[in-house]
Amino acid sequence: MKPDQEVKDEKEDVVTGDVIGDTAYSERFVLKLLLKFANLDTLKDEIQENTFEEDLCTLWDMTAERDVVLFLQKHDVLSLFNFAWPSIIESPRIIEILIGIIGNMCCQKEAAQALLKMDAFLTLLLEYTKSEDSLIIIQLLRLVNSSLFLADDSLIAIWIEIFIKIGYSSALYFILNNSSNKDLIITGLENFNTICSYCNTGQLRTRFFGHFVTSEAIEALATAFTEIAVNQKHSCGRDELERVFIISLQITLNLVGFDKSYEVFKDNKLDALKIISVVFTYYENKFVNQKEIDMDLVDIIDSTITLVKVLETSSICDHEQYFVQSYNMWVTLSSIDKTDSNGGSSFEIDDKEELQEFSKKMKASLSGLIFNYIEKCSNENLLKAIDKIGKNYDDIFSLVEDESLSKAVSDRASNYRTRLKETENC
Questions:
Q1: Closest by Cα among 207, 193, 132, 203 to 163
Q2: How far is CA 349 from the centre of its chain?
């Protein structure tokens, strides 16, 4: 009989030799599971067992660890999944889990690059964007996001070619246009934003424009945005909702950033205004009523200026869609300036200099947005806008940095303002 200490040491050696890298996970467990994919004669029976699904879910969790992913790569697991795929196509839950595993693996550059070399398998996976199973699509969109995040331009060019081959944009727009599943819509919006961020760059812009910049794009975006920000807003946390606002504006900015964007989206002005109106109504309430500073506001306003200029929305835009909200925030900023000069503020922020700098930037941006609206809005809305800003017109005018815009608004508003002053003096 061996001494107790020797037996203990042997057991520790076995445990140590079985672990994957620096993790506490068992090599033996993984290899035993992978062997089941290699035996097609028994695989169809295996996938009916609850323990098989549970073990796969365990592996899914394990692939959050880099060492586990490298271990799977060492054993060529992507090729193994590809080999076994015909045997699991009738099990949506197993498909979801496997795509989730591959998605986690693609958080590591080695796995993402290996998958990209497997053109037929990757194409097969991407075809699931046309699936009716929301859970499968969610995992697939996350897989794409992870892969693009790690890819350089040469690899992204390959992704774009695959997107074009399978009609990825049409599938994505169909999802955004037709789904009411909150998680799927938000994942779809994140996917759209990721594609815009990584595929709409440098020499890739032409291919991005050809495939993703279509009239269906903003329509689908506005439909998905409305489903989350209006219909399901009460089921969203604040951070989640604000994330949807930000990425929706970012996506729209990417779509309108081409010379031919107006021609493509000239019939989508109302769709863009839906997004802008909801965003500005939300942030007006947050800023004016709740007295909360949001450092994203300046970027939101500047982005909106670009959108309304490119899409020329002011001519069909009612003054209550974003003009009134913009002006109310402008007035609140003026009150901040006054209260700060008297030594106090209703906004909770420790750094007064930071608040003043923020106020200065935001006020200038709002002034530019207000004047962009007044320059092109209908005559009826022009009268309402000038009435609304009243005596603050000159202060707003002084903050507009675009001299040609200032002159255009001054010329357009001068006759009405003259009549307004005469009425006030009577």
A1: 207
A2: 28
Classify residue 155 as exposed, middle or buried by CB count within 10 Å of its CB (0-12, 13-18, 19+). middle
Q: Supply 320's token pair.
A: 């209550």
Tokens 């092109």 sit on residue:
376
pLDDT digits (tens, 9 = 90+) for 307-358: 999 999 999 999 999 999 999 999 999 887 666 555 555 666 656 788 888 8
CA–CA dist 222, 227 (Å, integer): 9
Any idea which residue has 């295996």 for tokens?
Answer: 46
Residue 257 neighbours by CB under 8 Å, 6+ apart: 200
Question: Distance (Å, rounded) from C-alpha 24 to C-alpha 42?
Answer: 29
pTM, two decimal places: 0.91
Q: What is the pLDDT of residues 229-277, one digit of tens each?
A: 999 999 999 999 999 999 999 999 999 999 999 999 999 999 999 999 9
First to last CA, the chain: 114
* Alpha-carbon separation of residue 228 from 209, 278, 380 (angstroms): 26, 11, 32
Q: Rounded to an integer, what distance in angstroms lies between the CA atom of residue 270 and that of residue 295?
A: 27
User: In the chain, what are the domain boundaries?
Assistant: 20-150, 164-262, 268-426
Both structure tokens of 405:
């815009």
